[in-house]
Amino acid sequence: MNPPEQPSSLLWLSKQQRPSSSTALPDLSTKQQPPTKKKKNTTTSSSTTTATTTATTTSSTSSSRRRRNDSEEQERDGDPHNIECRFVYHHEQYFWQAIEEIKNGRKESCWSWFLLPTAPYIVDGVELGSSTNRAYALRGDDAVVAYLTFPTTSITTTIHDHQQQQQQQQHHSHNHNHQQEERRTVVNLRQNYLTLLRLIRHQLLHSERTLTDLMGSLDAVKAISSFQLFERIGRQMNDQELYGLCTDVLKLCGK
């Protein structure tokens, strides 16, 4: 089925033709690179170690990003659908984990709300679904367009090794070099969606797994809903790449 002409009210995103199937795993390196890490040394003083005596032995992550929750502020900043806070930071956290899970043939953790978003679940005019499902629903075509066209975002996260801190405390250290790592992640929501679609299509084409095998029974239904939503918006936006991938995956799922 050929996509109809582009409506004047929507954006032109891509003139690429539908990608062809390949027997090899999709080359994810051409789309986005995994987060890069950079080590640096900082000095831990006795006052710092005293303040962190309750730290756990596992590493934890603290981010320099600022999460904005005020909807009015979001609208003033040009993000009326709150795409940044609802999706960008979760992509930074879960995208590469999701890629590894689908490569391994089975979704193991909870990320479909953020990486394969859907429209609200409405039955007889009443919105149903969990509170999380409602929180991450894309409400209206404008919200889907905003998701697909949201600017590429660079996020830097500092990783603190609290295990090393605790060891220093146990030895009554007062002035030791303390290693930290900075992780820089570049997030592009549209490219992430396309990359995940390509990998799902590859698994459906070249393995004996079904979408239910890959996603689980509940999330397979949500994934189909997401593919149908993005296929329709991709057709309206004349985004050939998005429309073609969604169509391919839906056909492989018998839809």
Q: Could you give the count of β-strands?
A: 6
Mean pLDDT: 75
CATH superfamily descriptor: Protein of unknown function DUF1810
CATH topology: Serine Threonine Protein Phosphatase 5, Tetratricopeptide repeat
What oligomeric state best describes the polypeptide chains here?
Answer: single chain
Give the helix tally: 11
Helix content: 40-55%
> What's the architecture in CATH terms?
Alpha Horseshoe
Indicate the proportion of strand residues: 15-25%
Q: Ends: how far apart?
A: 14 Å
Text of the CATH class: Mainly Alpha
Task: Supply the key terms.
255 residues; Serine Threonine Protein Phosphatase 5, Tetratricopeptide repeat; two-stranded antiparallel ribbon; 11 helices; 45% helix
Structural summary, described in words:
The chain is an alpha+beta fold and about 260 residues long. It has one domain (about 30-250): Serine Threonine Protein Phosphatase 5, Tetratricopeptide repeat, CATH 1.25.40.380. It is built from 11 helices and 6 strands. The chain has helices spanning about 45-50, 70-75, 85-105, 110-115, 130-135, 140-150, 160-170, 190-205, 210-215, 215-235, 240-250; strands at about 35-45, 60-65, 120-125, 125-130, 155-160, 175-185. It has a 4-stranded antiparallel beta sheet. A hairpin with a 2-residue loop joins strand 3 and strand 4. Helix 3 runs parallel beside helix 8 and helix 8 packs parallel to helix 11 (about 240-250). The longest helix is centred in the middle third of the chain and has 21 residues, at about 85-105.
